[in-house]
Amino acid sequence: MIPNQLRSAKWLAGDDFAGVNHRSRLKQAGYRKQDFAGKPVIAIINTWSEINPCHFHLRERADFVKRGVWQAGGMPVEIPALTITETFMKPSPMLYRNLLAMQTEEALRSMPIDGVVLMGGCDKTTPGLLMGAFSMNIPAIYFPAGPMLRGNWKGQAIGSGTDIRKFWTERCAGALSLDDWHSVEDGIARSPGFCMTMGTASTMTAMAEALGFTLPGASSIPAVDSAHPRMAADCGSRIVEMVWRDLLPSEIGTKEAFENAITVDMALGGSTNAIIHLVAMAARLGVSISLDDFDRISGRTPMIANIRPSGEYLMEDFYYAGGLPALMHEISSHLNLNCLTVNGKSVGENIAGAAVIKPDVIRPMSNPLSPTGGTVILRGTLAPDGAVLKTSAASPALLRHTGPAVVFENLADMEARVNDPALNVTADSVLVLKSAGPQGGPGMPEWGMLPIPEKLLKEGVRDMLRISDARMSGTAYGTCVLHVSPESHIGGPLALVKDGDLISLDAEARTLNLDIPAAEMEARRAAWIPPTPHYTRGYGSLYLDHVTQADKGCDFVFLSAEPEPS
Question: Mind listing the pLDDT tens digit for each residue in 502-513?
Fold first, then answer.
């Protein structure tokens, strides 16, 4: 590509009214003509916010990205975007992933932008930013915020999300004092950056790297390591080169690249949320992947990352053990090594020199944590369009189980009754939560790790079969069947479950069934009354009108299409 072919030249190169007007406004902002004339204009889409501790350092990192852009001969322009914080946004951050994707796409489309560096990391920001960039289809590179430092409590390394749930369980069981509970609060989150377990944030930044949209090794650099700002500058320099090369997302994000990402997800023991996000991301590039692809690839891929919640270590350990390049090198026989990446090299070239430093953190394939990827797709009368179970985080004794349902109609019902001593529940019961899907939540919140009733906790019960149309945090664990599709809010079979109904799970057979006669099922369906929508106006109403079900990625139907010409 040459300067007059740049997309930004349509705004800035002409000597007509529009060209002079546009250039005068850049000069109004203090830019000189030599700052932008004939140079690629690089957007830095930054999801920094003071309310998002995972991204709290990205304001500084943007300056390093700019340094790299200037040094490579481009012109950087920072553009703020919606910050999606898993901690604070209600009713669910997932409600806003598609809004961030729309904002990203339209910011890039409407302005004189030739390429973009995407800055994010907390769970939904990675897929949201990439979905928008994929639909826009101009050169794009992803810069992950990086995981926070490992937590510390009484000399123990503790992990955000995963360990705080375990401590809370013990607190509810009466086994942890209030003073200890508060001291956990002080030690579990010690720096900027996203969760340092293999939660959704770490999983999705790994997916960005496995797909080829980060520079090698970028996904697991701790947020406060000095390698992190250096990587930011490298991203700034590389995006300028990508613009001159006209290296587009559609050239990188192929079917083979998505199969690589799924393979890496399984080797990591990644978050179940990756399934929804990867399906949606692929659709933005016109690539079709299904739940069956995840089940097929999981069955052939050993899980070798010994990282919580499925393993022992944390992301800081993973990075110093060799990070994602080392893991990908270890499973290279399962990958398509010819896939192109943002640095212009193939996956095989990028991982050729990678080595595992600590083989207990990144296990050899001959000694995996699990011989398979630890995620299965279930189908049956309760989930005709599929459901997800993370077997690597489940109790083996519950992977084949039949028990009577204890049904909660919604979150408020569960919170009101789950700890009632009179609740008719035993360790063999199946806890069922309705109204937690894409429309029912709304936004498919992470309510899928239903709490164990306190009276059972005090008896020593620490896991039960739990079923919902919700998602579950990637830092969570337990025998939790998730993403039941179609959801209860639109009349899926989950809506028809009643207390005492027998539910059967067989993970090996990949089945999830509601054991009632077909005639009874039809009678309940005929009597079912649709619930009132959560929203009647605004973005919420748009969301409810157009969001797809979990098995289709929860994207908007009008956005799941091949990229348009930019």
Answer: 999 999 999 999
Q: What is d(CA 36, CA 6) in angstroms, rounded to the nearest whole number? A: 12
Q: Helix/strand/coil (H, E, C) string of 449-462?
A: CCCCCHHHHCCCCC
Helix (H, G, I), strand (E, B) or coil at 201: helix
Rounded Cα gap, residues 266 and 203, in angstroms:
10
Distance (Å) of CA 122 to CA 108, 128, 132, 196, 558:
21, 10, 16, 11, 25
> What is the set of domains in the chain, with CATH numbers?
39-149+191-351 (3.40.50.2300), 151-187 (no CATH), 376-531 (3.50.30.80)
Contact (Cβ atoms closer than 8 angstroms) between residue 538 and residue 444: no
**End-to-end Cα, the chain, rounded Å:** 15
- Reported as a single tens digit per residue, the pLDDT across 277-322 is 999 999 999 999 999 999 999 999 999 999 999 899 999 999 999 9
* CA 512 to centroid of chain Cα atoms: 25
Query: Across the chain, what does the average pLDDT equal?
Result: 96
The H or E element spanning position 178 is: helix 178-187
Asked whether 192 and 182 are in contact (CB, 8 A), the reply is no
Number of alpha carbons in the 13 Å side-chain half-sphere of residue 550: 39
Q: Tell me which amino acid residue 485 is.
A: S
Residue type, 17: F
Which letter, b or e, does each residue of 340-364 get, where b requires 16 or more Cβ atoms within 10 Å of its Cβ? bbbbeebbeebbeebebeeeebbbe
Of 435, 408, 430, 432, which is closest to residue 420 (Cα–Cα)?
408
Those residues of the chain that have pLDDT short of 70 are 561-566
**Closest by alpha carbon to 251, among 108, 129, 138?**
138
CA distance 412 to 478: 22
**Strand-pair category, 430-433 with 465-468:** parallel
Q: Radius of gyration of the chain from Cα atoms?
A: 24
pLDDT at res. 475: 86
Token look-up 């990508």 returns 242
Structure tokens at 383: 């989930």
CB 438 within 8 A of CB 465: no
- pLDDT in the model for residue 563: 56
The C-alpha atoms of residue 250 and residue 247 are separated, in whole angstroms, by 9
- Which amino acid is located at 326 in the chain? A
DSSP classification of residue 340:
B
Q: What pairing do the DSSP bridges indicate for beta strands 511-514 and 502-506?
A: antiparallel
Helix (H) or strand (E) holding 514: strand 511-514
Q: What is the enclosing helix (H) or strand (E) of 385?
A: strand 383-389
d(CA 137, CA 124): 20
DSSP-derived secondary structure for 414-453:
HHHHTT-TT----TT-EEEE-S-STTTTTS--S--SPPPP
The Cα–Cα gap between 88 and 121 comes to: 15
